[in-house]
Amino acid sequence: MIILPETERAQLRKAKRIVIKIGTHMLINKNGGPNTRRIAGFAKSIAALQQAHHEVILVSSGAIGTGLHALGLKRRPTHLPELQMAAAIGQTQLQVVYQKYFARHGIITSQVLLTHDDLKNRVRHLNARNTLQALLAHKILPIINENDVVSVDEIKFGDNDILSSLVASLINADLLILLTTPNGIQENINAKRMQRIPYIPHVSAQTFKLVQAKKNALGTGGMQTKLLAAQNAGRVGAMTVIASGATADIIQKVVHGEDVGTLIGCGSDTHHIKNKRKQWIALFHKPQGHLMINDAAVAALLHERKSLLPIGIISVHGDFTEGTLLEIEDSSGHHLARGLTHYSSDDIKKILGKKTSEIAEILGHKYYDEVIHRNNLVLMHEEEEPL
């Protein structure tokens, strides 16, 4: 177990922009309705942060759970239209509860419903960022949830943890707080005892071995998605704290640097993606295929900062069109980079291993020399200059 340096906790006090994600079980009481006592406590804590000149965005789960309670259902349905119906009912009811308790502290709340498609589309991405910036500038609290009424994958996979990390990137947050049931990440001491891990420097493959995905009747996220969220946040320079939302005054305790939950650092500054467009490429798209490249292309990408040419490609996997995000891996299957392709999977299969001078003859046209241009490519670990 890594002992937490005091200086790391002290950094939390300096966080200006904070994204707080609250899980379903923190917002729903044992009867299935909104936990108004706990919501009142969260409102009080967030009001205190605003008064101390922190900027806060709240990412809230609980819409489907609240809707299920209103419908008298005890368990989460498996039929998609019923989930969407519950979300449509619960989102309104939950927002009314938030409005009531934040109003006691003079805070105006706003509702922002997003999907991955909203953040993947460059124009809507920028519009969302501008809207959130304006709300923060006017000291209005944005309350964000996935738009479960129209979203399919988000309902199925429970990505509010991931959404919160994308929001942290979107608005340049310093700190992401994930409030859940466990008090951070636990490790086995023996067959009968678990112990909290207070600090993890950064998320690695070894970190994921500490947790296992679990399902429950209401929520869909687990510690796996929280680690993925922390990994995303770390890539843009934000620290993450995973803590129990049932702990009294947990938000203040986290921001004041108290030893609660698990603090996950953001790694070395040289591994942060600072260019906003490359953040958009790396974090806000879902890969639809991957390319395997040879050793010469690996060296060109990693050491010479070159674009990916067809001659360096060994194989193509997936069915995709131009403009799609692809994973790039070496011949051993190690992920090296992500990038937006200029060519479809069908075209790449025809030109892989060929010189750029042969593209026009093979395809009958050549719009680009590169399959993925350097400006549309992000290495898994690289320093980028900000725009």
What does this structure look like?
The chain folds into 2 domains: 6-269, Acetylglutamate kinase-like (Carbamate kinase), CATH 3.40.1160; 276-379, PUA domain (Archaeosine Trna-guanine Transglycosylase, Chain: A, domain 4), CATH 2.30.130. It is built from 16 helices and 15 strands. It has helices spanning 6-12, 24-27, 36-51, 63-71, 80-103, 116-120, 122-137, 153-157, 160-170, 205-208, 223-235, 250-255, 276-283, 295-302, 345-351, 359-363; strands at 17-22, 55-60, 109-114, 141-146, 175-180, 186-190, 193-196, 199-200, 239-244, 262-264, 290-293, 313-317, 325-329, 335-340, 377-379. α4 (63-71) packs across α5 (80-103) and α9 packs parallel to α11. The two termini are 39 Å apart.
Write a brief caption for the model:
With 387 residues, the protein is α/β, with parallel strands linked by helices. The protein is built from 16 helices and 15 strands. The protein has an 8-stranded mixed beta sheet, with helices on both faces. A 5-stranded mixed beta sheet has the order 12-11-13-14-15, with helices on both faces.
